[in-house]
Fold TIL domain-containing protein.
Amino acid sequence: MKLTFICLLVAVAIASVCAQTCPPNEYYTECYHTDAECIPTCTNPDPQCQPTCSEDGPGQCVCVYGYVRHHSGACVQVAHC
């Protein structure tokens, strides 16, 4: 009984780590901009930087194409900045 419970806890922990959920208008990727000035924002919607891809590090949520990071932290269309 205890072994079953431990296995269930481990399975839930693994599933929560593997299933990355992101806020609206964002997606999870392991290729992202590591420098803050390279993240598309309302004040700089088209920065000229190359994303960095990491195979062994954690990924992050980024704005979907056509959206930028608002000062509130949400991803919005440029027209809504």
